[in-house]
Amino acid sequence: MKPIQVGLLGIGTVGRGTFEVLMRNQEEIKRRAGRGIEIAMVADLDTARASQVVGHHAVVVSDAQAVIANPDIDIVIELIGGYGVAKQLVLAAIEAGKHVVTANKALLAVHGTEIFAAAHRRGVMICFEAAVAGGIPIIKALREGLTANRIEWIAGIINGTTNFILSEMRDKGLAFGDVLAQAQSLGYAEADPTFDIEGIDAAHKATIMSAIAYGIPVQFDKAYVEGISKLQAQDIRYAEQLGYRIKLLGIAKRVSSKGSREGVELRVHPCLVPTKRLIANVEGAMNAVMIQADAVGTTLYYGKGAGSEPTASAVIADLVDVTRLMTADPLNRVPHLAFQPDSMSDLPILSMDEVRTSYYLRLVVADEAGVLAKITGILAQADISIDAVLQRPGSESKQETDLIILTHNCLEAHMNKAMASIQGLESVLAPIVRIRKEELS
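The structure assignment produced for this chain is given below.
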């Protein structure tokens, strides 16, 4: 049987890894897929670099449209990235009747609804395992392995750059800026690290997972996104003393409890996580996703979330899936977002004000009588109960002190109101530090 012919758009780090792993393991992949899979064409603006990678094994062109227009190409792999030209090329490939494999989480998080609808109309597949958590097969787990379950919540360390930074800050007591520079020198962080350190990359991935878990359209624009650039070393140290570690988590949670509006929380922000949780002990540039489901309970998926060959592993798994399913009736294929297109839910994404969680607060206050009573009184008026209080000498002078308060669960709206009142007290000497706390149990 003739091998499946694949066109590769972009042969950077992941593209090169995909080509090399496919060549190295081609016999084993063929045995699993039931048919050979060959990258027959490569499009890249740097044709010299591309030719050096693929040699005589594939035709190299500079025009991606030439790959899409080739009638012999069955599957197009999009590894260009971004929202612009990548979207045009993916939609063009769909219109040409090509199946598409992509690692482009930004494209799917923002334009996924349009892309999946176009693919459904044309009867082609869009596969995107590599878009979330690199080599960890989390999309397949959510979409297929957990299909019998009602997903209650997902919490993931899904950006290796930020996890590396937080791990180094904790281990070495360094400031954020110093560790960011180190991450850049090691190649973990880009020259412009904004997407990573401000949580945007993690929010793209959380958006995709939320859509699969709850059968809702991708809605990146409704996600709450907060990064790690304002975290301070002393908060990481205080969290450790209280039995917690700080992690940047992407969270998707279905809310249907009494007294709360039914909907989905979709948020990315730093969290205090108990050190006894496995996910709190994920260090360096590794990724992990924790899922709570009604039938199976808690599951944890751990591995490399980026890199040439780990991500290539996910890309090639998608190629094998497409190869196996190409002859299947489109109605009998696994739906792009797990649920059948005519059975999608209209559950709303909840605003951050409607989120109910617990908090770590650090206040720099004047070391004088009555301060704590005023603060706890304001919290009580906002219906916020206190779990623990820790007081430490201030770093600037003996006339001030660091006051750390852990709260029980409350509405974010109530916390915002209370913080505004507390910040207005003369005895509060600096902006209040707030970090949300997730027990993950």
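Interim note for the steering committee: Residues 355-437 form a domain with the Alpha-Beta Plaits fold (CATH 3.30.70.260). The longest strand covers residues 244-255.
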